[in-house]
Amino acid sequence: MKYKEYKGIDYAEIATEVLSKWKKEDIFAKSVESREGAPSFTFYEGPPSANGTPGIHHVMARAVKDIFCRYKTLKGFQVKRKGGWDTHGLPVELQVEKELGITKEDIGNKISVEEYNLKCKEAVMKYKDQWDDLTEKMGYWVDLNDPYITFNRDYMESLWYLLKKLYDKELLYEDLLFNHIHRLPVPDLVHMSLTNRGVTVMLRILLLSLSLKLLIRKMSSSSPGQPLPGHWQQTPPWPLAVILTMSR
Fold first, then answer.
1. Coil, helix or strand for 224?
2. Nearest CA among 138, 42, 49 for reference residue 81
3. Is 176 helix (H, G, I), strand (E, B) or coil?
4. Is the pTM of this model over 0.90?
5. What is the phi/psi pair of residue 62, to 5°?
6. Where are the domains of the chain?
7. How many CB atoms lie within 10 A of CB 102?
8. Which of 76, 105, 127, 220 yields a CA-CA distance of 20 to 30 A from 29?
9. Exposed/middle/buried for 96, CB within 10 Å: 0-12, 13-18, 19+?
10. Which stretches does DSSP call E strand in the chain?
């Protein structure tokens, strides 16, 4: 077999030609169907959410995932890849409430629960076309024709069924939630930060503010030029200057 020789390579044109051939000859489907009866390789992908636009980090992550699936296909495994959409609730709810100019208290008064749910379902799939276009253009092989969607009743009931099975086998247990330890009077905010991204930012600002107050208090009692005692930890980058100051 003689491979085509390129002179003055136009990568965009080559990509278009390859994608066109794959689509015309249905190569992805054939790569799965031709291995019927072979050992299967199961790959569970954490699905994206279509209420936000895709970015370059999605391309990089999907390229890595695609490598493993293609490698296993070349090794003779049948690798079925089912697309999916994560329709996680809170960010979508906040987005819809902002667009409609309402709060949680308005649901059932200014807008019915049914109308609110419909608006959320519309918003969560807002950028689906952009995701599908990116998926095809980057050559990421996954079945987009029959995706699973986490807000579908069948999907939710399947999860409850599996949870019941785990419970019956005594594989579920109740325990305490692990969290970072803050010696500051903000346990409620720490808990809220797990469920609200906006609160997380405010929490970090509050912790930084309290850290500065502690710093000033300790500076007044420390010898000049001596590092402040204690263990200082930071998660986001913006308190880094404060941490460095504390350690000097």
1. coil
2. 42
3. coil
4. no
5. -70, -30
6. 11-87+125-168, 187-247
7. 16
8. 127
9. buried
10. 82-85, 143-149
Say which residues have a Cβ less than 8 Å from residue 186's Cβ, sequence separation at least 6: 203, 206, 207, 210
CATH topology of domain 11-87+125-168: Rossmann fold (3.40.50)
Q: What is the pLDDT along the chain (248 residues), one digit of tens a residue?
A: 788 787 888 888 989 999 999 999 999 999 999 999 999 998 877 788 888 899 999 999 999 999 999 999 999 999 999 889 988 778 888 889 999 999 988 999 999 999 999 999 889 888 999 999 999 999 999 998 888 888 889 989 999 999 999 999 999 887 776 555 444 444 444 444 444 444 444 444 455 555 555 555 555 555 555 554 444 444 444 444 444 444 44
Nearest to 87 by CA among 139, 127, 137, 146: 127
Q: What is the dihedral of CA 184, 188, 192, 197, to 10 degrees?
A: -30
Three-state secondary structure string covering 21-88? HHHHHCHHHHHHHCCCCCCECCCCCCCCCCCCCCCHHHHHHHHHHHHHHHHHHHCCCECCCEEEECCC
Structure tokens at 159: 């999860």
